Amino acid sequence: MNNTDIARILHRLATMLEIEAANPFRVRAYREAARVLDSLTEPVASLVEEAGRLEKLPGIGKDLAAKIRDIVRTGTTQVYEEMKARVPIEVAALTALQNMGPKRVKTLLDRGIRNLEELEQAARAGQLAALPGFGEVTQMKIIQAIESARRESGRTRLSEAWPVAHAIADRVRTVEGVTQVEIAGSFRRRKETIGDLDILACGGAPDAVMEAFTTHYEVAEIKARGASKSSLQLASGLQVDLRLVPPESFGAAMLYFTGSKQHNIELRRIALDKGWSLNEYGLTEKDRQVAGRTEEEVFRALGMEWIPPELREAQGEIRLAQEGRLPRLIELGDLRADLHIHTDRTDGRESLETMVRALRDKGYAYCAITDHSKSLTMAFGFDTERVRQSVQEIAAVREAVPGIEVLHGLEVDILADGALDLDEEGLALLDWVIVSLHSRLKQPREEMTARVLKALAHPAVHVMGHPTARMIGSREPVELDMEAVLDQAARHGAMMEINAQPHRIDLNDLNARMAKERGIKMVIDTDSHRLRELDYMQYGVFAARRAGLTKDDVLNTLPYDAFRAALAERRSRSAPS
DNA sequence: GCCGTTTTCGGCCCGACTGTTTTCAGTCG
Question: Which nt has its C1' nearest the CA of A272?
Fold first, then answer.
């Protein structure tokens, strides 16, 4: 039972309580607890062992702590079992539908409608429209929501939303009188996936702005259109909201619509303590506006530094901002190298020379070419003989492409038993060794953990590539005791990669936070297999920023000589005694 | 259900839009 599983139960409990019209603040307490557990960087199961640790978490008191202990130990807790009996309904699936909240679900429950199938049947039979709180329109919307829930998995990868978000923002920007357009929401917080897009605009006639917004060629359906807010759905299924706000409120609105929700709640609490009120229109004292034109203004008035959007997750950033101790987050321009690159020698599309030229032209001072090792037979992976040959190839490309240092690397498979897929002779020929999991990903947790621990203990290893091997939306992370892995990496001076492929983002922000806590250095790499993937670097930087990483946490921000010195130092430290 | 150098009780963030109402509840963010 991992943190997400426990959070899911608490979340479901909250919804079931809501259906039963329980005290809304009690409902909120369960939701808040779920959120806190889900964003924790250590396993709840380990907190349970020590008395009082759970109760120290924000929003978790004696009562919830006891329930969480139950869930960790037995997989459930009494109130959850009771609730499941009283609310025998597919809560999550039903409330996930647009326009379906606790009240309507309660109405369904009273009519014996318990799941999506029964709901769809009733809707198509026209039986829903007569229910209290429903109607013809709602009935139709429910049918559509069920159909679209079947089509979509729900969230969109940031990289997929990136071009369309900017295209729509640019279109609104062209409207006469519009002075500012910004994309807010989880997009601005650079989450790896987003649920919808929130765009803010300022200036211009409402009708003209909304017209430009709702007529973008990708629009499939206009869901709402008002003077200050419109909502639409794109052909891809992505929902986009646009809000038109007055200039004196733009900063407050940016703050509000960037979120996270929990971050905003904490800010409002601070405003209340000062006798003020904070909403999307501004920070006000009675009727007097205290701040609101810019975010900086609002943060300053609240007595803190401006907080980068990536950190606004209610993870302690507000305290840091009040104390003036926010980290100076890493930026794309800090990176001096891309250290995970494939070529057509294995499964990449481009020649070695083309890739190295492109890397140099991107302005990198150095790079590492890291094709696959032999166990990836479908990628024509390298054996020792091929690595020997590669030494010559790398020497040739260094000659052919001046202006960038090229490390001779390899992405070596971690075999099922934790051995490396290259012998000592081959490893000794390399400047840079990434080890990665590519096969046998279904191993049980114990086996997988032992496998990785063994690989990380090998003195030739520099970094672990895409450590959990997950693919967002298509493959779950491997079962791995990440704490044990990070402890091992710290012990042996191994690094962890933040793989910037937008479907990997691996390490993710939470794991990167855990790595930082242990003083582990990270590298951010694109794992490029073709030229355009070199531009993925920004997505890795986003994850690093969300984890609160600075330039100092990431080794490929170092100048080349300092980088080589750091590698040499690490190797002497981990040399067998 | 949580929380508290103002409180162990009485607070707990707030507004827009829609559809179903007949003045507003439900949902969403």
Answer: B13
